[in-house]
Amino acid sequence: MRGAAGSRALFHGLRILSACTLQRECHPCGCARWPIACAERHAITAVRSTTGRTRRPAGVRGSLGPVTDELVFRTARELAAAIRSRELTARQVLQAHLDQIERFNPAVNAIVSLDADRALDAADEADRQLVEGREIGALHGLPMAHKDTHLTGGLLTTFGSPVHAEFVPEADELIIERLHDAGVVTTGKTNVPEFAAGSQTFNPLFGATGNAYDPTRSAGGSSGGAAVALACGFQPLADGSDMGGSLRNPAAWNNVVGLRPSPGRVPTYPTSAGWATMGVQGPMARTVADAALMLSVIAGPDPRSPIALQTPGAAFDIDLERDLTGLKLAWSPDLGGQFTVESEILDVLTAAVTAFEETGAVIEAATPDMTGADEVFRTLRAWQFQLTHA
Fold first, then answer.
1. Helices in the chain by DSSP H: which ranges?
2. Which of 13, 39, 103, 344 is least surrounded by Cβ atoms within 10 Å, i.e. has the fewest?
3. pLDDT tens across 169-225, in order?
4. 58-323 has which CATH code?
5. Collapsing DSSP states into helix, strand and coil, what is residue 76?
């Protein structure tokens, strides 16, 4: 599978490898094999499903019966096109997702602070704008709950902490502002660990979020609510943030796509740590193409952010066909012995390296000096928390 198709298949296969390895069973396909055997079967069919609809989590196709409406698993691009062409109304799309939330959110606790009335009003306004022929954005009419660390004007934003249990911001922060400008309909907030500090999603206000494929297991974190909401069909896109894996590990654990952009790619405002580069905001989606679409909306310069990169967001809404021949990639299985890696996971990673090589990429072993990195990370994270929440 050399070339563009192979690269897309590989990316999709790696997402499934990650989810299967961490969950021990492959719930999306209903099999109960060990991860490696399951991954081999998925690798064969990955190229056919990379940009299409993802397989359903066990939580939304088990004892509770079939999903409420198949449209909740359409891609963001498909839904946006259907609303734009008026095949579907924004209200229809929203109502289907609200029904899905009502039916399945109690089992996983992904979405908190739901405001259905506000969302329905916004969806009706989106439909009016279409009828009146107004200019619309790339995400017009798409429903989305936002990470509960992102400021949303007029909507409870708790950071998962009793300290902010009644905090309602007066205005949206920049990433939410850009999503609204693109036409997103806000439904509520997605659950987080307290202050987004951790790789598991639970807090004293809203409790724990369960994995979409098995609610008794961890959803990952800190954008765990976002990943589970995507996997369960509660929304077609999700926003998140990442300081030490918070967009990536919950995405892997719930079989969706999480992208940590470069610092400054998605500018942050307001912030009390404008020069800090450790934490970033970014997109989450069920397909790579949808993640690119969302990045095109939230990326781009802003004069209020001193580290904002100047590339316009539109640069990321591009054809994803790509030949990986000659692309150089560095990898390390354990960062020079800094971490203990289970043999099962190491086998999967080694297989992934081989798969990349088969697409034509050049893999180079690289082990950066990570001496003292954990202490530095914890110190800088504490400093940022103190700036933000003290």
1. 4-23, 35-49, 76-84, 90-108, 116-131, 174-181, 224-231, 248-253, 288-298, 343-358, 373-389
2. 344
3. 999 999 999 999 999 999 999 999 999 999 999 999 999 999 999 999 999 999 999
4. 3.90.1300.10
5. helix
